[in-house]
Structures are given as structure tokens and as C-alpha cells.
TrEMBL record:
Belongs to the isochorismatase family. Residues 30-200 form the Isochorismatase-like domain. Pfam families: Isochorismatase. CDD domains: cysteine_hydrolases. GO terms for molecular function: nicotinamidase activity. It comes from Glycine max (Soybean). One of its GO terms (biological process) is pyridine nucleotide salvage. It comes from the Eukaryota. This is Isochorismatase-like domain-containing protein. InterPro entries: Isochorismatase-like_dom, Isochorismatase-like_sf, NIC1. SUPFAM superfamilies: Isochorismatase-like hydrolases (SSF52499).
């Protein structure tokens, strides 16, 4: 029944994806959103998967591959890590990714990024990495990163497609459109390196405070809404002499 519903959704709101070629002669930046144990490692916390999940494992694999390429090319990478203070809940979700816990650390496949000179790690305490980059003095770590590196195309990957990834893309697109992120021109969401979680309806009905969250359905919706905001949705990302973004 769920698969039939997903197919109906995709027919009603079809999502055109494209192959994106990143120009070798331009500055491309990679943003990894919340690829941490608390959301991706089986049994790691309240919001971690309960069993191995193909969409999540595929997202990790593709994100790690891209991160290697960006580091080999010495291109700028920013990794957002969800990190919450225990006295500041994030409704409607239970406590998760508490500061200092292993839940808020990168998954094992990406821990090597912590030692790469071209990588900026930003711990955030909210859904949206753009808002989570605001400092007490009003400056914004993400905005400064884009401007300092003169990034023209931003590639976004991570979790969750329809929550933290989407929120970050929406804020970034609005800021770009208002001229706050020059010289940024393009925001690309790579669908194969994004994932979300799965809470079937029958599980939600029997879990106090839980909301149904069918994985394939919400992944599609998240990508579709990102495209509605002006982001490009890619099902393939390549590097080439002449970029096609």
C-alpha cells in the first residue's frame, strides 16, 4: 500500500532530476548536513535507525565518496553536526544528539574529515544550519565561509531530506536571492546523497507523540520542495572542464 501511494505521489508531483557537472575552474563548496551517529548509526540514540536502512547507508557512501573528491581537490567543505544542550528541547522530537555525546559526532565513515585542513566543522543547535551558524555577535559562520572561499556553486547532501537539509536549503536560497551570499550562484541538492527516516503509520499510532513519516514519500517531498525554492536536484554529480549547473 505504501509503495502504491508513493508512486501516486510521484505521478502527481513528478520531480525532474538532472546530471550536474561541476566546473573544474570554479569554486565548488560541499555542505554535509547532520551525517552523525544520532541520525545514521543503528541503535545510536532516540532518533537513530533501529535497523540497517538502505537509503541511509547509500547516503553515507555517496557523501563519503564526494567528500574524498572535494578534499583531494582542496575544495571547501562544511559539515553541520546537530548538537543540543540538554535543557533546550527541540519539539516535537525527544532528546537527541546532546553536546558531548557520540550521537553528535560524525559517522565512522566520515570521522577522517575532522583532520582535513579544507573542512569547517559547525555544531548547530537547531534544524537549520544557516540559522545555526549565527554567532552571538550577529556574524554568520556559513555566510563568511561562502564569501571567504568565493563559492559559486554549493552542493548539499545529508539528513534529513525533508527537515534539516530542506530548512538549510530554504534559508540559503532566500539569503542568496537577497544578495547576502555573493558570489554564490547555484545550490544543488544531490538526491542519492540525501536520506530521511522511516516511521510507518502503525508504529506512529502506537507511539505517544510520534508522527507518521514514510521514508520514500517524505524523501520525495523534501526534494520537491527544495526544487520549489529554486535549488537544482541532481541524481548524478560529476566534475568537468565545462560545468553544466
Amino acid at each position: 500500500m505504501v509503495s502504491q501511494t508513493v508512486e501516486l505521489l510521484k505521478n502527481e508531483i513528478p520531480l525532474e532530476q538532472e546530471s550536474v557537472v561541476l566546473a573544474e575552474d570554479a569554486v565548488n563548496g560541499l555542505v554535509l548536513v547532520d551525517i552523525i551517529n544520532g541520525f545514521c548509526t543503528v541503535g545510536a540514540g532516540n532518533l537513530a535507525p533501529r535497523e540497517s536502512n538502505t537509503q541511509i547507508s547509500g547516503m553515507i557512501s555517496e557523501s563519503a565518496r564526494l567528500a574524498r573528491v572535494f578534499c583531494e581537490k582542496n575544495l571547501p567543505v562544511m559539515a553541520f553536526l546537530d548538537s543540543h544542550h540538554p535543557n533546550k528541547p527541540e519539539d516535537p522530537y525527544p532528546p537527541h544528539c546532546i553536546v558531548g555525546s557520540d550521537e553528535s559526532n560524525l559517522v565512522p565513515a566520515l570521522r577522517w574529515l575532522e583532520n582535513e585542513p579544507n573542512v569547517t566543522i559547525r555544531r548547530k543547535d537547531c534544524f537549520d544550519g544557516y540559522l545555526g551558524s549565527i554567532q552571538e555577535d550577529g556574524s554568520n559562520v556559513f555566510v563568511d565561509w561562502v564569501k571567504k572561499n568565493k563559492i559559486t556553486t554549493l552542493l548539499v547532501v545529508g539528513v534529513c531530506t525533508d527537515i534539516c537539509v530542506l530548512d538549510f536549503v530554504c534559508s540559503t536560497m532566500s539569503a542568496k536571492n537577497r544578495g547576502f551570499l555573493e558570489p554564490l550562484e547555484n545550490v544543488v541538492v544531490y538526491s542519492r546523497a540525501c536520506a530521511t527516516f522511516n516511521v510507518p503509520l502503525e508504529v506512529a499510532r502506537n507511539t505517544k507523540g510520534a508522527l507518521a513519516h514514510p521514508q520514500e514519500f517524505m524523501h520525495h517531498v523534501g526534494l520537491y520542495m527544495a526544487k520549489e525554492r529554486g535549488a537544482k536536484i541532481a541524481n548524478e554529480v560529476l566534475f568537468g572542464a565545462a560545468g553544466k549547473v
